[in-house]
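Q: How would the structure tokens look for this protein?
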Amino acid sequence: MRRPESHFRGNQRVRSGIFYFLCLMLLLEGFRLALPHLSPAPQAYAGPDTTYRLYADTTRAIPPERPGANHPLDPNRLDDFTGYRLGIPAACLDSLYRYLAGGNRIKTESDFRRATGLPDTVMERLLPLLRFPAIKPRPGLPAQPVPGGRGAAHEPVADLNEATALSLQSVRGVGPVLSARIVRFREALGGFLDTSQLRDVYGLSPEVAERVGRRFRILRPPKIRRVDLNSASAAELASLVYLTREMAEDIVARREAAGPYRSFAELAGVESIPAERIGRIALYLSLEKE
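A: Here is the predicted structure in token form.
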């Protein structure tokens, strides 16, 4: 019996076409596998209030032998690679290079903030990794203390409720964004009653809030109308800045189930209220009726 012949036998053009087709498929597959490694690194995303949401933990990847806490960096000598490792966006690095190319020099934190345009949250993370050149005072002039740092205790204490956004920026770690947030939060409250309320300003770290509280005090507390915890409705309680509608309804529900509140400490029994905020919530409440 005669064995059937292959359709491709003796056809050189068909065999060559199949060969080139397989080579093309292999080439495309190799390109697909290599594509992720050839893509550029993602740029930082700037959201509301220019708060950067990427590169939050970039500096953790820097090993001890590389520039970091053990080897503070001179911001005047940052290169692209180091800036990338620190999580500084390319646009901010370009702005820094233009600043240095103009014959300027980074001498202070304010210079670095102005040259890069970085937001306060990123500056707070980078400051421990940077070393700013010491500024020698002119002959015959005393050294000037750094605002909010060592020597700042000798500055006169100002009223937090009268501080402007510009004066708040005299504290180390507070820039235009955070100072504006402090002012907006103060207006929403009707004035600060206690410096501990600074901890509720979005983006303000506890360390910076403490420095602001040392520089500014409550010299003239605002006059406010406190809400009676045992007679107020859920709508009245929800009108307070610190209480959401859910918290207010839970307060009323617990009052109806267990009876009148005898102390503000009993608010710890309301699950929707964070325990660490009870003291600040109590500033706007009273226990007049039981």
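The longest helix spans residues 12-38.

The radius of gyration is 31 Å.

Upvote if useful.
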